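Lab meeting, action items carried over

1. Structure of the two-component assembly. Owner: GW. Status: complete.
Input record:
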Amino acid sequence: MINRNAICRLSFTLFVASIFSFSSSSIAQKYLGTRLEILTASESNSDTKSPVDLFNETWVRSELDVPNLGNDGDWVWARLDLDPVVDAGLRVEIAYPTIDSLQVFMVCDGVVKSKSSAGATIPKSSREQISGNYPSFYIPVEDCEKLTCYIRAWSGKQLLLPVRVEGSTKLLSDGHARDVFFAIYFGVVISLLLYNLFLYFSVRDDNYLQYVLFIIAVAGTQLVLNGYDRVFDLISSPWLALRITHLFGILSGVFSIFFVRNFLHLKSKAPLYYKIFGWLYAPYIIASILLISGYFNTSYDVINVSALSIVLLFPASIKVWRGGDISAAYFLVGWSVFIVAVTVFVLKDFGLIPYNEATLYALPIGSAIELVVLSLALGSRINQLKKDRQRAREKELNTSLLNEKIQKEQNIELEKSVTARTSELTEMNESLQLTLEDLRAAQQQLIQSEKLASLGQLTAGIAHELNNPINFITSNVQSLKRDFGDLREVIESMTTLHPNSEKIVDELLVVLDRVKELDIPFTIKEIDELLAGVENGAERTAEIVSGLRIFSRMDGNQESEANINELLSSTLIILRSNLKDEADVLTEFSENLPNISCQPGKLNQVFMNIITNAAQATTETDLSRSERQVRVRTRLVTDDGKQFIQVDISDNGAGMTEKTKSQIFNPFYTTKEVGQGTGLGLSIVKGILDDHNATIEIDSEIDKGTTFLLSFPL
Amino acid sequence: MINVLYIDDEEHNLTSFRAAFRRTFKVFVTTEPSEAVRILEENPIEVVISDQKMPALSGVEFFELIMPDHPNPVRMLLTGHADIDAVIDAINKGQIYKYISKPWNEAELKRLVEEASELYQLRTAQDMQASDISKRLYSAQDKLESLATEIESSSVLTIDTKRDYIEILNEAISLLQVPI
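Predicted assembly:
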């Protein structure tokens, strides 16, 4: 793991560098703490504004170079005895920029010679501050025995009094050095800030924005801690000026927590720490409330104690690092440096390590290093992100390649299955063709059988119809023979008569007796009747046979010119005996019907079917035989300039329901009992009429009758 | 001469029938069922021949119509076409004697009419015999009744009385043809 080694090396270097910087005392300052006498506030002196009243109080000499006056929020007095000769014209510098209220009195032999003010709440114009961030006060040149500098200080924060006496030039050059240092520091911070802001806008990773906020908070803290807000007179409001340090402390803490929680992905990688860090917001909220309420020092304590909890970051980031996130290691290193810096800073305040420029700058240096390392951490995250993206892209590429391959394979499969399906379909098509042919054959057969059935019905009718005339013709011939025998006997006996014979009269009488006996007049009358019968029988037979001849064309499909009236007549002849006991048939034929081109046999089938049905329908009523009627009518009509031959066949039968009417042309639909009909009759009728471009309409009413209206176009 | 009634809606058939059989039978013909009924009532018709297929009513229906009042004349159905339903109806409902198809064979028809006439004679004879037996049974009963009153009035039975009694009983038994 190159990264891990790099991190170890980096942290070691930083550690050595910081130790080196803290221990070097090349720029060590000399603070006069041990010469200071401190008077902490008591009830008697808390409101005292002039040092004159305090000469007799019990002053305590400080033991530290830089007295640490704690965070009590009380007024503190300090006095420094000056050499009126040596120190005159020099300046007293209080190298602590966060003192909120500072008054310096120069007292010469018990008389206040000058009074100066400085601090957060004092506007820049009335501050005793030559330049730079530390306030300093001029020591007047007076002729006195004893010159004492009284310092009255109050702060809403930790209060330290690093005091030294130096010439203006020295103070200015030191101040200049500090300015340069902080200029570099802020330069670094601002560049980091801009860099990360830029990254945020290009990467759109929220971590960068959080980091930018964190940088602002840290840099702001350094700004106010070192008094640069006052140098540049950034804050005009005294209310805010008293709170700005706390505010940046709170912001630093809050943004740290925010940044830590999100940067380390604690929510998913260490949920427990995520929760704990969540709770850490609470003290900052308390601190904010205290701050707003004016409890400056309590608020400051809360902020400092809360800041200690930052050590929790160690176990959390280690856990995440172990979880495989390299950036957590950078994070750890960055924060370690910062914490070391804070430790040094705090230790110096308590005099455990020297209070000098080096220790003073531990915090900005530490924070700068931290910010740089955290930037690296974020950078490693970019790399990580890049790698992840690269990996994702490769994966995507692989996937798409794989997909392409799969698609190719699928295409081949698809083509195969299409080919298979096509051949299947072709086969199916062929078998369907066969089925269709079978069906056609079956249909033909059904039509044939329907035809045969009606032929059978016809044959029966015709047989009956022919039997009557044949019966009386044959019978009449027998009778005629007998009658003629009688006649011949008389005539022969008359031919044997001799006109000249004497017995002629007797012989004639005998013949006449015989004539009487044989009832010859009746015989002659009977002969007439019998001959009429024979004639009638012969006519009727001829008629039936001719009707049959027209009908016998039923089998043929050939077209020919035919007259509808003639066809109807022949159908009626053939049906006569069948209809005899069913209904009377009334005909009303238009005389001037033109011939039409048709298949006469087929039309006969149509008429026979409809007329038979009509007659049948009349038998299904309560009507007596003489009341049952079937009416057959033909007409020539013109509609829309087109000529039609209309045939209407109506009956006064049972009529049919709407249901029957709607299904009547469906094959196999029948209202007859099983075995009585195929149910094909009318479906065949429809087919035949369709072939002739003829239409068929049905008008039917239950118990009233039915009319079939057929229209043949000319 | 045998009295024959022939009913058919076809006039020419009637003429033919009359011409064929007027020499052998006494022929009555008509096309109207009502006329046929009138003829049956006025003449001792022995044989009735009817066509099956007629417009007003069928031959079987005609036979059904006349049977209650004229059960004895023998019925024959004449038809142009063998229709099995008509045959079944003819036997079950019309109780016909013979079924003849057109065109008829004159000799056969003549023979059938003669047979039918014999059947008619037999039927009437049986009817008459039956009425004769019942008459004689009634007279035997009357005699027995008068004998009984005579026995009741006289205290002593004479031998003659006893002989009469036995004679009457024997006659009744012979009439009833009951084997003893």
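2. GW to write a short summary for the group page. Key points so far: The longest strand of chain A covers residues 629-639. Chain A touches chain B at residues 460, 463-465, 467-472, 474-476, 478-479, 482-483, 526, 529-530, 532-533, 536-537, 577, 580-581, 625-626 (CB under 8 Å).
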